[in-house]
Design a protein that fits this description.
With 258 residues, the protein is an alpha+beta fold. It has two domains: 4-116, no CATH class; 174-258, Ribosomal Protein S8, Chain: A, domain 1 (2-Layer Sandwich). It contains eleven helices and five strands. It has a three-stranded antiparallel β-sheet, covered by helices on one side. A two-stranded antiparallel sheet has the order 1-2. Helix 10 (176-195) crosses helix 11 (215-227). Keywords: Methyltransferase, S-adenosyl-L-methionine, Transferase. Residues 1-77 form the FAM86 N-terminal domain. One of its GO terms (cellular component) is protein-containing complex. One of its GO terms (molecular function) is methyltransferase activity.
Length: 258
């Protein structure tokens, strides 16, 4: 999926002026609506309708030939039943495709802004950042969706060396030490791979800024760095105050190196 205004529509117009329209349309459909990834892990029905409608509108501006194949494709999605689940596919630099199943109800919320106006919304299990992609809540439906996504991604991957599992974790029953070892270990392993990658001529600079809410947990993170053979230095340079935030909080920035 990509935003419709990001499609190379101008190049489509040039193609239509120089080639047979029917051949162009068939080629476009084979790379989008009829692509194996789209057939196996289709994007939302609404998105498919918008895409084909926009494609027809753009082609009609320049093409003189009938667009039966396009109207047939649009007819199929117009008659299709609404779905609760869709897929979003991300193309990696390696050429692999990662398709993740998502619930389409978020689109419903965006369209019904009047329901949420002047309301306070508490969203549960909505992590962000590196650990947000790994952890979620303990709802069995969410855990099953994670398992399905992992199975789907591993099935599409050529490598058989990957080993990923989904575990249920009760956050109220784990100790600070267990929590640190789970959350920080994932981040530290990633940083270690970045800083020790032999394929890079120049290693990246790694800086981490953190609000120190729990000194014990923050010290645990630094111990995880040491155990992984990574060193760090605290950045003490003064900075210009540009962005508004609670300056009473303890904020520390460190530079990490191998």
């Amino acid at each position: 999926m990509s935003f419709l205004n990001n499609f190379p529509w101008d190049s489509l117009h040039i193609e239509i002026m120089t080639k047979t329209t029917s051949d162009i349309i068939v080629d476009i459909l084979q790379k989008t609506r009829l692509h194996p990834i789209c057939l196996k892990n289709p994007p939302s029905l609404k998105y498919r309708r918008h895409f084909l409608t926009e494609l027809i509108k753009r082609v009609e501006m320049f093409a003189a030939e009938p667009l039966d194949v396009l109207y047939e494709a649009l007819g199929e999605v117009m008659c299709a039943l609404e779905e609760d689940m869709c897929y979003k596919t991300y193309l990696l630099p390696t050429g692999d495709a990662v398709s993740l199943a998502e619930n389409v109800r978020s689109e419903w919320a965006v369209e019904k802004t009047h329901i949420f106006t002047n309301k306070t919304v508490l969203e549960l299990g909505s992590g962000i950042g590196l650990t947000g992609y790994i952890f979620s809540d303990r709802h069995q439906t969410v855990l099953q969706r994670l398992k399905d996504n992992i199975t789907n991604c591993l099935t599409n991957c050529d490598s058989n060396s990957a080993s990923v599992c989904v575990e249920e974790l009760d956050w109220e029953k784990v100790s600070d030490e267990q929590l640190c070892s789970v959350v920080y270990a994932c981040l530290v392993r990633l940083l270690s791979r970045l800083l020790n990658c032999k394929a890079q001529e120049e290693h990246p600079d790694v800086y981490i800024a953190s609000t120190v809410r729990n000194p014990q947990m923050y010290d645990c993170f630094k111990k995880e760095l040491e155990m992984a053979g990574l060193s760090h230095v605290v950045m003490t340079d003064s900075v210009t105050q540009v962005f508004p935030y609670n300056r009473a909080s303890t904020i520390e920035m460190i530079k990490i190196y191998a």
